[in-house]
Design brief:
- It is a single chain.
- By secondary structure, this protein is α+β, with helices and mostly antiparallel strands.
- The chain has one domain: Anthranilate synthase.
- The protein has helices at residues 43-51, 63-68, 115-130, 151-161, 208-219, 222-242, 279-285, 297-307, 358-367, and strands at residues 12-15, 25-27, 32-36, 56-61, 84-89, 93-94, 110-111, 136-146, 166-171, 176-181, 184-189, 192-195, 198-203, 249-258, 262-272, 294-295, 318-322, 328-331, 336-340, 343-352.
Length: 374
């Protein structure tokens, strides 16, 4: 596929699988684009999307831009990545076959924090929960690596190891985003909006019998179940703000997602969008996603700023597309690498509740990076 795309043409590529409904498509040579800083109002993005109604539109919104909408403090973004970036394309092409590469030409990802630092922050989060400040918090940190590979070759290598439902690639002059996300944020089609939060993770085994034991352990975990149900409730409330009264329903409360390295549990919530709300306004209003912030969302985002010393950037933000017919699909940008020159940054983390154990949570965060290791 990349062989058909000219250099310096600012392409986007979206690749799903048979389970996702995420289209396999690519576009390049945009007819227009918009980049917003953390200080720019979201109305500028809304007007851009409305202007190009009937065109193919793709873009991303960082975690910090979403958190800013909650009126909480945020860290400044690092590097050249804008807070929001969207492009309009005259058309797109469906992808019948996407070439994969078996490269491992990058250094191992290493944490930017020590386990001791993680432990201290974990204890503070548990103290906050005991004091009633919040019920659950998604705590994250960056891992770093470097590579000599071109962005396009690197994405083909990552995709070979991550056959996930909601992957995306976006390239610019000074950065590239490799999102190998297993998590849908929202899809809006014919004014029906749905969201699919993931909570609960356990590593898989190559031994089928042990693999089943691990899955049973995940399904039997009261901690993971409580975490999932809390986030389903939070997102049900988020949908209630943009949906017609009485239309929001929990369609699946605990289903299993099988990936190459891990099992996840997830939920599915649907509703009917209010007539006076544009789909891009609904997307903005729900940021940051509840599954990657916590509950209650505003107080947790304040604690994220306090405990996490780095900006998240595109990680735990959202990236996706709007088709000419108005269908909107965006992921939660987890399992997502930002490439700037040779530098690679991969965010990892997980939800912490009163039932969490520090060693388990730290090891789970490392497990989530396993499929990105050379």
């Amino acid at each position: 596929m990349f062989s058909q795309i000219p250099e310096n043409s600012k392409p986007v590529v979206f690749i799903g699988n048979s389970a996702s409904g995420w289209e396999n498509l690519a576009a390049w040579n945009p007819i227009d684009s918009i980049s917003l800083s953390l200080d720019d109002p979201p109305e500028e993005l809304v007007q851009f999307v409305k202007k190009y109604s009937g065109k193919f539109v793709a873009g991303f919104i960082t975690y910090e831009y979403g958190a800013k909408g909650l009126d909480v403090p945020i860290h400044p973004l690092n590097g050249h990545l804008p807070a929001v970036h969207f492009r309009a394309y005259e058309s797109y092409q469906m992808i019948d076959q996407f070439d994969l590469l078996d490269f491992t030409e990058w250094l191992p990802f290493t944490p930017t924090i020590t386990k001791e630092k993680y432990s201290l922050d974990f204890d503070r989060i548990i103290d906050y929960i005991k004091c009633g400040e919040f019920y659950q918090m998604n705590y994250t940190y960056p891992m770093v690596s470097s590579t000599e590979l071109s962005p396009r070759s690197l994405f083909q290598s990552y995709r070979a190891k991550n056959q996930v439902e909601y992957s995306a690639y976006m390239e610019d002059d000074s950065w590239a985003i490799h999102s190998l996300s297993p998590e849908q944020f929202i899809i809006i089609q014919d004014r029906i909006i749905s969201t699919k939060p993931i909570k609960g993770t356990i590593a898989r085994s190559h031994d089928p019998e042990l693999d089943q034991v691990l899955l049973d352990r995940l399904l039997g975990s009261q901690k993971d179940q409580a975490e999932l149900y809390m986030i389903i409730d939070l997102l049900r409330n988020d949908l209630g703000k943009v949906c017609e009264f009485g239309s929001v329903q929990v369609m699946e409360s605990k289903s299993v997602q099988k990936l190459e390295k891990v099992f996840h549990t997830y939920g599915l919530i649907k509703g009917k969008l209010k007539k006076n709300i544009h789909p891009i306004e609904a997307l903005i209003s729900m940021l940051p996603g509840g599954s990657i912030s916590g509950c209650p969302k505003k107080r947790v985002c304040e604690a994220i700023y306090e405990l996490e010393s780095h900006s998240r950037g595109i990680y735990t933000g959202t990236i996706g597309y709007i088709l000419p017919d108005g269908t909107l699909q965006f992921n939660i940008a987890i399992r997502t690498v930002l490439q700037q020159g040779k530098e690679l940054i991969l965010g990892v983390g997980g939800g912490i509740t009163i039932g969490s154990k520090m060693d388990d949570e730290f090891n789970e965060s490392l497990t989530k990076a396993a499929s990105f290791q050379p």
